[in-house]
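Model the whole thing, not chain by chain.
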Amino acid sequence: MSTSGRGLHGRVLDTLGPEITAGVYPAGSVLLTDELAQRFDVSRSVMREAVRVLESMHLVASRRRVGVTVLPSAEWNVYDPQVIRWRLAGADRPRQLRSLTVLRSAVEPVAAGLAARHATAEQCAALTECALGMVATSRGHRLEEYLVHDMAFHRVILTASGNEMFARLGDVVAEVLTGRTQHEVMFPDPDPAAVTLHVQVAEAVREGDAARAEALTREITVGALQELDILAP
Amino acid sequence: MSTSGRGLHGRVLDTLGPEITAGVYPAGSVLLTDELAQRFDVSRSVMREAVRVLESMHLVASRRRVGVTVLPSAEWNVYDPQVIRWRLAGADRPRQLRSLTVLRSAVEPVAAGLAARHATAEQCAALTECALGMVATSRGHRLEEYLVHDMAFHRVILTASGNEMFARLGDVVAEVLTGRTQHEVMFPDPDPAAVTLHVQVAEAVREGDAARAEALTREITVGALQELDILAP
DNA sequence: TGTGACAAATAAGTCTGACTTTTTGGCTCC
DNA sequence: GGAGCCAAAAAGTCAGACTTATTTGTCACA
């Protein structure tokens, strides 16, 4: 489950990536390839490969005669799963979770509406199964098992939408849900109303009722926003 | 405006990236670093750097004794601006524009609602300016100028939302709008109703009316979906 | 004094060749 | 026919020399 353990350059990224995203080197800081290679005790070839990856994430820019410059966070590829993981592991994890939850609240209802139109029979079955699993594990301090079904549910919705951009957010949603269960303060048992909503969404998708699926999912995400105290006055 | 002209490895990516995203090498195809280096007439070091970048985009996976394997498109980092550009330049540009337009339709209304709450005075002014610019260029076959204001408008909305994930979609939306003006069939003048909606969104944001800003923006994105014949029966 | 061109320093970029490591596929041997 | 061993293959790593572009500083000239 680690990030990119393969290869020496991966090891370098495992520590340099989190450092940069955590703001250890403020925007504009200049790093030197040779110094970094010394610090991590790797050859320049390996160090250069690592820098190339950071560059493709727009975390740094490499310029001749200057060095490797750290870019302002506004330039970062914040949709890169690796960057997301690095940031979630860092200090501004709460802030990151909020951003991602807002994104969820925008995307998931629309995805559910599309899923109601495009979902295959297998996907409908999987959805119902997930919902039932959530019901079954919603009582008795079985949060870990509940989480598995919850993540699977949302992943199926995003996949069944038929939109590849939505589908790729499955990992992000899973990360958010995991973060909520682990880190955030949560009741020993999930909110019964939320469980019911999931069952109803599965119903609506099965019946092809796009408007209802969208509205119900919007209720779910509103709940998620409220948990993080993100709501309109 | 090119992609990554800097460096030899960038040149390699400029042709290898589009080839992979265009499906020239089907998922599972195996490429050999040495052969690629020969083909592009670069050293192995440079070729390795290029492969590392492709790897970080999850376009390929490099394994010892096997080679560089092309991954199925479901694994690609489709939110990477570079990947988006490559795919938009390729054969399935229409499909890509549809995916992105659907994403827009999900994100922009929510972003507009947030902008109504968080927009600064400067951002409100910029928004009004953009809207006025759109009105001024909405007649007389001035699509190029209109497009500039249109792109700026949506970028301000996304930025003013205060959510970094939304803000980073500014480039994507700009790409979609450009694509619509250039490639797709469009009337010589933009739809007057759409122009009015933009002005009203600017108003709503200025007045802090989140619900109205969201609803109006939803109308705009519904229009965008209809242009591409994406609509519910 | 300011401005231009030129020269030197610097750090990334590139190439080459040798070596290491891991994985796989086949082969032998039981 | 299966377990284990061996060799080939390809990526991975390293070290060193060289190239190129960019910046900075200096010096001469207006």
